[in-house]
From TrEMBL, chain A:
It comes from Pedobacter kyonggii. The keyword Transmembrane helix applies. The lineage of its organism: Bacteria, Pseudomonadati, Bacteroidota, Sphingobacteriia, Sphingobacteriales. SUPFAM superfamilies: Nucleotide-diphospho-sugar transferases. This is Glycosyltransferase. The chain crosses the membrane at residues 12-34, 358-384, 390-414, 426-449. Pfam families: Glyco_tranf_2_3. GO terms for molecular function: glycosyltransferase activity. Belongs to the glycosyltransferase 2 family.
From TrEMBL, chain B:
Keywords: Membrane, Transmembrane, Transmembrane helix. InterPro entries: ARM-like, ARM-type_fold. It comes from Pedobacter kyonggii. The chain crosses the membrane at residues 6-28. This is HEAT repeat domain-containing protein.
Length: 475, 354
């Protein structure tokens, strides 16, 4: 008869091994699958002249929605940067989400704004709008500033959707720095498909820490000097260049980053806009839109492009990073909970049979399995139920794969966009890839565990995100 | 245990191989970059020489002098690619004699033959590249070879072939619209319209035929041509598109009519309002707000009872802009003192002022 000790040991050993091998297989598949998609994109892109779109009357009309909360320090430069985007059919909507600083008064003064008579089509329920401002100067005619009661990012974006008059919305964080052709590149996928309706498009977000920024424009790309932002640079390369591209090829993307993404407004409206009951409103909206399209039986696609389009400041302290990852975890679980009907439901096709289960097993469960598996192995080894050498081999095996995966991502980055050109930078990235599983990864797993606990405690705050600001060019 | 150790060694070895490849690739790229700079100067010099090259006394274009070194370099794939890229970019920005000189140089170096060989490639991006070269360099004699690609199953090959045909034959090149069976994407249409805007204006025939095409995207494109080139004589054909089976064709017809409208257009649009989709109903109201000429204000007032605010607002705007007495009628309407019309009217008034 099998003793309970050996059953427990076998259960943990083989269970965890199977899970790890499955996860690793998924990563290998993602890495290989993304290569073809990136290659195809780059080939097609070499024939594309985005200037054609910039001045075209036929280009889709786009509203940029940028919620701002206490952004007074940089709001003028950020808005100027958005207004300088080269695109004809564009309106820029800044939503002042009840800021307690001087954001609004600064905007009124610099952009010569007046309170306009403006009918807001309140199709999506939101907090009260105090006023809509437009500029007296024709040069700022694309600008609309909405002042509203504080209600959070999702509520602010919903107000923006209600105010917008264009066919597509681009939701961005006001402090993000966009590449000059970012909107053009994001708009193109909406124009390319005849068989499927493109309902959302996302682009690569890159880390701007240590980069030189002047007047809201990125002057020089630099690899972050600090370890934490640097390791996030590597993490973003892996996630965007490999992960999202592979999911885009499969047409199984569930997430367009809240920092920068474009959406078909008609579908967003039909889905009721952003959900302000979750801290993962960006993922939740994409899942809801996909679910809606599946239920309506309309062929659709969530598209993703590998070009670096948007640069953002990453958390540079463990405290802020922990809050961010905690929130991401809660957002993921909330979204999965809200749409649990999709789970292995063949009615939802790829969404139900692959995308959702992947997120459930390998995004939501992975940190839990990793954390509790680690503790269980330590206990089992301490009681002599498994050998320490076996435990160490398993850890080294996972470590070596993580390192290999990161090196592959660095190689892909060099072969495609090569943003961090010097040998020194690449060496630093490889060193970071080596250190990541030892320092960064355990912290991220711990933050995810805390996120799970906070969710059980029904904590639903965003957590304050303090930013240090970008590096300016020395004169 | 052994299983882990084998995999572990494999992963580490693979990682080291990738790092080695990365270092080698970076070294190679650095070498290439130095070569590119050197070649750039060489190519620029030749292109400048070619652009300002003069015909000989007999009026014949003589051979443009090319160094032996450059000819030898052309056997190098990377050099050849860089040369073609630069000559194409230069040709795009040159017309007349200078452009003709570049074309002459291209043929003199036998690059046209290379392009034709590439046209036979099985790789779609190579074929598209060859087609792009042929179109930009104006190799009209190759029309038959690229024309068949205008209905290719690969979208990029198709669009490059269509653009090339336009480059070679201007508006006349649009005859591929007679045969294409694939749907034209919005992006494709934007590119074609942009390309057409650089072609000298000439008699554009065949639109009437395309307006009755069985391919809805061809009809939409034809409607865009009618709008962009203000083809008033095709007004009736455009109106007949308002009864097309495809809603997106009808929407484009509504948009086109805002550019070539007559006194009766608003009534034509209103007569189809009830049978239209919601999106097209909004488009009709937006069109009326632009073209005006509403005779029967009461019809519009009737639509103010619409359930959705978006529609109400579009109707109110059409009323205010579409008729001289619209605003007055709107204000006098019993609903104007209640939400939402009460809130819409100030904005509409301010729009008139603006």
């Amino acid at each position: 008869m099998v003793s309970w000790q050996s059953f427990l040991t076998d259960f943990f050993t083989y269970g965890l091994l199977t899970y790890s091998l499955l996860l690793l297989s998924c990563y290998i598949f993602i890495a290989v699958f993304s290569m073809g998609e990136i290659r195809n994109y780059l080939r097609k892109n070499s024939f594309t002249d985005y200037g054609v779109l910039a001045g075209s009357r036929q280009a889709p009309s786009i509203s940029i929605l940028a919620p701002a909360y206490n952004e007074g320090a940089n709001i003028i430069e950020n808005v100027r940067s958005l207004l300088s985007i080269n695109y004809t059919n564009l309106e820029v909507i800044i939503i002042n989400d009840g800021s307690r600083d001087d954001s609004l008064s600064k905007l009124i003064e610099v952009y010569d704004l007046y309170k306009a008579d403006f009918f807001i089509n309140g199709q999506i329920e939101t907090k009260e709008v105090k006023g809509v401002y437009r500029s007296r100067k024709a040069v700022y005619r694309k600008l609309i500033v909405v002042d509203k009661q504080n209600g959070g990012k999702a509520d602010a974006l919903n107000v923006g959707i209600n105010v917008s008059s264009n066919d597509y919305i681009v939701c961005i964080d006001v402090d993000c720095i966009l590449e000059q052709d970012a909107i053009l590149k994001l708009a193109k996928p909406f124009l390319e498909n005849t068989k499927e309706r493109v309902i959302a498009t996302g682009g690569v977000i890159r880390i701007a820490n240590s980069c030189i920024v002047e007047n809201g424009r990125l002057l020089k790309v630099k690899l972050p000097r600090q370890f934490l932002p640097r390791v996030q640079t590597l993490e973003y390369i892996r996630a965007f260049l490999l992960g999202r591209m592979a999911w885009s090829r499969l047409n199984g993307l569930l997430l367009i980053s809240g920092a920068f993404g474009a959406f078909d407004k008609e579908i967003v409206m039909k889905c009721g806009g952003y959900n302000h009951k979750t801290v993962g409103e960006d993922m939740e909206l994409v899942v809801r839109m996909r679910r809606y399209m599946e239920e309506q039986g309309i062929a659709h696609k969530v598209s993703f492009i590998p070009d670096p389009l948007c640069w953002t400041e990453a958390p540079s302290t463990f405290k802020i990073l922990g809050r961010q990852r905690n929130r991401w975890t809660r957002g993921t679980i909330e979204t999965l909970q809200m749409h649990k009907v999709i789970f292995f439901n063949p009615k939802y096709g790829l969404l139900g049979m692959i995308s959702y289960p992947y997120w459930f097993f390998f995004e939501f469960l992975a940190p839990l399995v990793e954390f509790f598996g680690f503790i269980a192995f330590i206990i089992l080894a301490s009681f002599g139920l498994i050998q320490w050498s076996f435990f160490l081999s398993l850890l080294l095996f996972i470590f070596s794969f993580g390192f290999l995966y990161s090196v592959f991502a660095i190689l892909m980055e060099v072969l495609t966009y090569n943003q961090y050109k010097t040998n020194r930078n690449l060496l630093l990235l490889i060193l970071t890839a080596f250190l990541e599983p030892l320092i960064f990864h355990p912290f991220v797993v711990w933050s995810a565990i805390k996120g799970n606990i906070d969710l059980l405690r029904k904590k639903n705050s965003w957590g304050e995100m303090t930013r240090k600001g970008f590096t300016k060019e020395k004169v | 245990m052994i299983f882990f150790e084998v995999l572990l060694s494999f992963f580490f070895t693979l990682a080291i191989c990738l790092i080695t490849f990365l270092s080698f690739y970076l070294f190679l790229r650095k070498t290439w970059r130095r070569e590119y700079v050197k070649w750039d100067m060489m190519i620029d010099l030749l292109l400048r020489k070619a652009i300002f090259f003069h015909e000989d006394n007999a009026g014949q274009l003589a051979s443009i002098p090319v160094t032996r070194r450059l000819k030898a370099n052309l056997r190098n794939k990377r050099f050849c690619k860089q040369f073609v890229k630069k000559i194409i970019a230069a040709k795009r920005n040159m017309s007349g004699r200078h452009g003709e000189n570049l074309r002459h140089l291209y043929i003199q170096l036998g690059l046209d033959k290379k392009a034709l060989r590439l046209l036979e490639s099985r790789k779609w991006h190579v074929r598209a590249y060859a087609i792009q070269q042929i179109g930009t360099m104006g190799l009209k004699e190759q029309l038959t070879r690229i024309y068949r690609y205008t209905n290719n199953k690969n979208d990029l090959v198709r669009i490059e072939a269509q653009i090339a045909v336009l480059n070679l034959f201007g508006f006349e090149g649009l005859r591929f619209l007679d045969i294409i069976s694939y749907q034209m994407t919005e992006w494709q249409q934007i590119r074609l319209l942009k390309e057409l805007s650089t072609v000298p204006q000439a008699e554009l025939t065949g639109i009437d035929k395309w307006l009755t095409s069985g391919n809805p995207s061809v009809v939409i494109f034809a409607l865009k041509l009618v709008r962009n080139y203000h083809r008033y004589e095709l007004y009736e054909n455009t109106v007949s598109c308002l009864d097309h089976g495809d809603a997106s064709v009808r929407k484009q017809a509504i948009s086109t009519l805002t550019e070539i409208y007559t006194e009766s257009t608003s009534e034509e649009l209103l007569s189809r309002f009830d049978s239209e989709t919601y999106k097209n109903q909004i488009a009709i109201m937006n069109a009326i707000a632009v073209i005006g000429g509403v005779q029967n204000v009461s019809t519009l007032l009737g639509y103010l009872g619409a359930e959705k605010h978006e529609m109400k607002f579009a109707v109110a705007r059409a009323l205010v802009n579409g008729s001289a007495i619209g605003l007055e009628c709107l204000i006098n309407d019993s609903r104007s003192t209640t939400y939402p019309l009460r809130d819409m009217i100030p904005q509409l008034k301010s729009e008139i002022k603006w």
